[in-house]
Amino acid sequence: MINSKQLLVKRGFDLLLGFALLPFLVIPVVLLVVLATVDTRCFGWFAQERVGQHGRLFRMFKIRTLRVEPHALGDLDASASSFGRFLRRYKLDELPQLFNVLFGQMSFVGPRPDVPGFADALKGADRMILKVKPGITGPASLKYQHEAQLLAQQAQPEVYNREVIWADKVKINKAYVETYRFSLDLRLLLKSIFS
């Protein structure tokens, strides 16, 4: 099980890597936000409430990819502009989460932060997932990197998400917390970059 010393090392690495990447990512993020603003006709910087470490809510930053209209789980690409689909395909819409990492709300690696109604509803031993900060990438997000396409194939995407995908993500994320090693974070980070 991850301990307080490992959490401290993890945070130190996040700060080191975050500040190293900041000068290289600020201008591309600003440019992508401007392009997303023009493309979606709404401000291109998007913040959504998510569940963080210890179940605390925070605002996760993204670049807007969806038009402001109702959309359903499993059909998000239909609401996305072509530029938005490009951003989502290459995960460029996630770049603003570097600021969440620097603010201490997220880590580079960990369970992905969920909207309220999932992680905050965990019971018993499953709540161990909340011991760590949510991550930009993690073991479950790597397994389900094509989650949107998988959900689009389901007759009832919301049911499938809650009963199949979410249950599996909980198992994967529990194993991550239970068997945590800093070297695991490095492997997951490299795997994310090259996948």
UniProtKB/TrEMBL annotation:
It comes from Subsaximicrobium wynnwilliamsii. The keyword Transmembrane applies. The chain crosses the membrane at residues 12-38. Keywords: Membrane, Transferase, Transmembrane, Transmembrane helix. Residues 10-194 form the Bacterial sugar transferase domain. InterPro entries: Bact_transf. The lineage of its organism: Bacteria, Pseudomonadati, Bacteroidota, Flavobacteriia, Flavobacteriales. One of its GO terms (molecular function) is phosphotransferase activity, for other substituted phosphate groups. This is Sugar transferase. It comes from the Bacteria. Belongs to the bacterial sugar transferase family. Coiled coil: none annotated.
